[in-house]
Design brief:
Layout (H helix, E strand, L loop, with lengths): L1 H19 L13 E4 L4 H14 L7 E4 L2 H8 L10 E4 L5 H9 L5 E16 L6 E2 L1 H8 L14 H4 L10 E3 L5 H15 L4 H8 L1 H9 L7 E3 L4 H10 L4 E5 H6 L4 E3 L1 E2 L6 H6 L5 E9 L9 H11 L5 H4 L7 H13 L10
Parallel strand pairs: 1-2, 1-3, 5-10, 6-7, 6-8
Antiparallel strand pairs: 3-11, 4-8, 4-9, 4-11
Helix pairs in contact: 2-13, 5-7, 7-9, 8-9, 13-15
């Protein structure tokens, strides 16, 4: 009887979603959850998918795709209906321009849920030289046009700062579509750029010029775009002891046997420093959900409930490497899951 009820609910949901469809396949139906987005959130979303299936007999396993935050939000905002994802996983907050794009495409009611915290970690091989970095050093090593004074000519870390080894600058990191890349730009590169007082004047003069000067990364091979596969960066670091990698804190935690942390402003990325915000690279992790899909996609509410049930300290997600958000944030997020509170966009940048 229970199985029949589930099948009936699934069929009804599929019909409901068909009504939600817009151009390019409004007649399509779907009976499983689909999430796209951040490679950092990906392992946590797949863990929740496993727990969701275990706790909801007869339900299909959700489809979780690692497309990068920017790419995922773009897919999410493309429209409402079976051909569009239900959830966007994000390793940064949705941008105002993305929210407006969603609205323009009919994705009006968006639920924002902070699921945890992560750190933008810098790491090296166990055999690495023992780098100690600051945002200023990282910026001067990786910026395409440091402080707007011409192309970056630094070849070694010692060229950037005499306290560092004379090894060639080689950094493996995320692509421009990744939320981790956005976090690198916002939390590290921009902070380093702003150590020059002239950059404040530039920002007041031209926001676009300031952004290009402070966040554009050099393209001469010193920074290597390693795609959305953070495990590939781990492998490259193991093979190259003098290289640095940039990825989410969870990957550093998972690979402590192969890698060691590179401190930022003298602070190492640890569970405690990331959760308290003491670590300069700490950042929130989000999922965005279409309210229009909540009743149309079978199990979507149960999937969100699975997230909420496992994101606390000592929960299944923290055991997988995610850092639990502070108590007040978790309480607000649990309320968003329960009440399906809609984002109004006024606080987005």
């Amino acid at each position: 009887m229970k199985h029949f009820a589930l099948m009936a609910a699934t069929a009804a949901a599929a019909l409901t979603l068909a009504g939600c469809g817009e151009s390019g396949g409004g007649s399509a139906t779907r009976d499983q959850i689909r999430a796209v987005g951040s490679s950092t959130v990906y392992p946590f979303a797949t863990a929740v998918a496993e727990m969701f299936v275990q706790g909801n007999s007869g339900m299909k396993s959700p489809i979780i795709e690692s497309t990068g935050t920017g790419g995922g939000v773009k897919l999410f905002c493309a429209g409402v209906g079976a051909q569009y994802p239900d959830i966007a996983n994000a390793s940064r907050r949705m941008k105002k321009a993305e929210f407006e794009d969603c609205q323009k495409n009919g994705v009006k009611d968006i639920i924002e849920i902070q699921v945890g915290v992560d750190g933008l970690a810098f790491a090296e091989s166990k055999a690495g030289p023992g780098f100690k970095l600051t945002p200023k050093i990282v910026y001067e090593a990786l910026a395409a046009n440091p402080y707007g004074k011409g192309p970056n000519k630094a070849e070694t870390w010692k060229d950037v700062d005499p306290s560092l080894p004379a090894t060639a600058i080689s950094v493996f990191g995320p692509p421009s579509t990744s939320g981790t890349r956005d976090s690198l730009a916002e939390l590290v590169l921009t902070k380093g750029c702003e150590t020059d007082p002239a950059m404040k004047t530039l920002k007041e003069k031209s926001e676009d010029e300031f952004k290009a000067t402070c966040t554009r990364v050099r393209e001469d091979g010193k920074y290597v775009d390693s795609g959305e596969n953070d495990n590939l960066i781990v492998q490259k670091l193991a093979a190259n002891p003098n290289a640095l990698g940039v990825f989410g804190f969870s990957y550093l935690e998972e690979n402590k046997d192969k890698l060691k942390d590179v401190s930022l402003n003298g602070v190492e990325a640890t569970y405690e420093t990331v959760s308290t915000g003491k670590y300069p690279g700490a950042r929130p992790l989000y999922i965005y959900v279409k309210k229009a899909h909540m009743t149309a996609i079978p199990g979507l509410q149960a999937f969100l409930n699975s997230f909420a049930a496992n994101w606390g300290p000592g929960g299944a997600l923290t055991k997988r490497g995610m850092v639990a958000a502070p108590d007040d944030v978790r309480k607000a997020s649990a309320e968003a899951v329960k009440s399906l509170t809609v984002l109004d966009g006024s606080q987005l940048k």
